[in-house]
Every structure is written in structure tokens, then in C-alpha cells.
Amino acid sequence: MEFKQLKYFVEIVRNGGMTQAADHLFVAQSTISKAVKNLENEFDIILFDRSKKHIKLTDTGEVFYDKAVEFLTLFDHLTLELNDIFEVQKGHIRLGLSPLIRVDLITNSLEKFHDKYSNVTYEVAEGGGKAVEHYLNKDEVDIGVTTLPVDSSKYNSVPLYREELFLVVNTAHRLAQHETVAIGELRDEEFLLLHDDYYLRDMVIENCRQAGFYPKTVAKISQLTFISNMIKRGLGISIVPKSIAEQMSEDVTMIELEGEKIYWHLGLIWKKGAYVNRVTQEWITFLKSSLE
Fold first, then answer.
1. What is the pTM of this model?
2. Which site among 18, 26, 32, 277 is 20 to 30 Å from 10 CA-CA?
């Protein structure tokens, strides 16, 4: 068994197929296919149910996958620890981010950090807050940005910033000229909400519930430009952070929510007890200092 064979197998599962894995790894699909076949022949097992239209692991494949991920993670940690010992100036930061965050805050910090450590490389995985926590739990990223608070028994955290939430509607909407709107007035409106892996979606639903109703959801979306275009065409309303509302088209109006302000709190988190390489630790310290 070769290290590359395990790597190829794990990437097939993570990317949802051999073609996608080959594209991700920049290798020929035949190379990926051959590696899996060699693994199956060596251990006399079947890893994938090939009778299905989409990729599906067999029971044996499920066990093999878990152990392969465990082995590759241990190998990565060994490599990182050795790199820390021999070369502090080099390293790789794996970061999980929500597309909703103020990107300038992270990129400005990384720019200054890169000036100091020019040989450091970066890898960014996007997703909602729940997806970021999933990436951390699976050791696919080392640190992430998500909604606070988090489970303090599982994660370390550093607050980054907070943003007020605003109602966004089409400029021709009946509420467009209002200076403020109570959430209760939105009872009969159709909402454009984010997908389930976003904590912001949960916040909107919870505030609607406190106002005595459950929001009618016309669409669940993860792309902000799509939400903006849907609102522009009068296909629904949404509640988003101020920085997001300000980026929407001229045909979309942002309105302050009446009553106690609702804030979205963002923070940097990393898993307790997990190995965090030297350069990532340095960046966390760097980011803390810049915030102070």
C-alpha cells in the first residue's frame, strides 16, 4: 500500500467522485481509478458499490475511509510538528470562512502577516458556521470563523466583531419608505433565507418566533448575489448583516429593525486539544494583537 493510494481514495469520497477528485488533485482519472483498484486487490475488499449511479461506499469502504482519514491526519500532524522544529518561517494555514464575513478584516491581517512570513501558504474552505465547525471536527481546517458563542468545552475562541442586522426589501416594497420596521410586521412576507448550515438563518427564525410567527420561506440560498437579485425582482425579503446589506444593488433598500438591536457576533475558533502548527499559532497571536 502506498501513501498516495490512501490520499486518492479519501479525495474521491470527499469530492464525490473520481472525476472530481482527479480535477482537485490535478492527476489523470485513470491514475485515481488504478490506485483504488490496487487497494482493493491488496486487501481483497470492495471499497465502492459500483452498481449505484453516484459514488457510494460499501460497509467495508466506510471503515476503510475512517481509518484512512485517521492515518492521513496523523501523518499530516507528524509533518507539521517536524516542520515546526526545523523551520518556523514556513508553514501552511488552513482556514474555514463564511462568505458572509467582512473579508477585509481577514485579508488585511493575512497581508500584513504575509509581509512578515512570505513563505507561508494558505488554504481557505468556505461554508456557513456549522460547516466550518464540521471542517474543524474532521481536521480539514485548523481554524475557522463562525458565529459566537460556541461550545467552550470543544473550541477555543477569540471575538472578532459584531454587526447589526437589517431588513432588506425591494425599493418598490410596501415597507421600503419606512425608517424602522418591527419584525412582527413581516408575518405575511415571503423570506429568502440562508441554507441550514448558517447560524444566521437560525437567528432570523428565532427572532421571528419571538415575534409570534414562523417565517414563510420562499427560497434557501447560500449565494449573496442571488439573494440580492431575488429581492431586486420582488421575490422576497431578507434579514442580513449591515455590511452585506450595503453591498446589495441600488434596487434594494435596507431598513432598521424596530426595538432592541439584533447583533451577529463573529469570532475565530479552533478545536481544543487539537494540534495547531506553529505558523497558525503565530497568526492567531498576530490577529489578536491587531484587534487590540
1. 0.67
2. 277
